[in-house]
Request: fold
Amino acid sequence: MKTKMLLVFIVVAALFVPQSLLFGQGRGFGGGWGGILGGPMAAAYLGLSQDQMSQIKTLRQTEWTTVKPYMQQIRTYQQQLKGMIQSTAALNAAQVTALASNIATLQAKITVAQAQMQWQVYNQVLNGTQQAALNQLQQNMQQMRQNHENAQSSSSSSGSNP
Reply:
C-alpha cells in the first residue's frame, strides 16, 4: 500500500510541482512528464508502450532545448540580484524590480513551454484509457493532499493547546 501511495505521489507531484523543484539541471529542466511518465513505474501503471515512452522523451528533449537558454538567463539575473543584495551600496529598488520583471517574464516562457509539452503528451501520446488513469491519479493525489493539510491543521491546532 505504501509503495502504491509513493507511486501516486511521484506521478502527481510531477504534474503539480514546478519542475524546477523536481529535476536538477542534469536531467533537464523539462523533466516533468518525460522524466516521470517516461519512467518504468509510471510506464507500467499507465501501460505506456516503448513508442509512447520514446515520444515523451523526444518531447522532453525539445522542451529542454527551448527552456535551457531561459534558465541560463534566469541564473544570470539571480546572480546579479545576489550581487546587489551583498553589496554595501544602497539597494536600488528600481533595479531589483527590473530584474524581478525579467525573471518573471522568463519563468512565464518556461511555463508555456512546459504546458505545451504536457498538452502534447496528454492529447497526442496518451490514449483515452491512459488519460482516465492519469486523471484518477490526479484526483486521488488532490484528495491525499487535502487530507494531509487537514491532518496538519488538526495536529498544529491541538498541539498549541497546553
